[in-house]
Amino acid sequence: MAVPKRKHSNARTGSRRSHDRLTPRQLHSCPKCGTMIPTHVVCPNPNCGHYMGRTMVEPE
């Protein structure tokens, strides 16, 4: 059975884990109402409901 001969240093462990962090959601503003929404999502604002220049959800 393979067992490490030496302990890995903290720098080596940190270098390996450097890409494991969480990245924030990519947000953009709705061109019609200005609400910050994730990309490729219909605007959740009840008075808007736009996606890619078209009305997808009728305003209340």
UniProtKB/TrEMBL annotation:
Compositionally biased intervals (Basic residues): 1-19
Gene Ontology cellular component list: large ribosomal subunit
Keywords: Ribonucleoprotein, Ribosomal protein
Pfam families: Ribosomal_L32p (PF01783)
Disordered as annotated region, ranges: 1-28
GO biological process: translation
A molecular function (GO) term: structural constituent of ribosome
Superkingdom, natural source: Bacteria
UniProt key word Ribosomal protein: yes
InterPro entries from the UniProt entry: Ribosomal_bL32 (IPR002677), Ribosomal_bL32_bact (IPR044957), Ribosomal_zn-bd (IPR011332)
HAMAP family: Ribosomal_bL32
Entry's family note: Belongs to the bacterial ribosomal protein bL32 family.
Name listed for the protein in its UniProt record: Large ribosomal subunit protein bL32
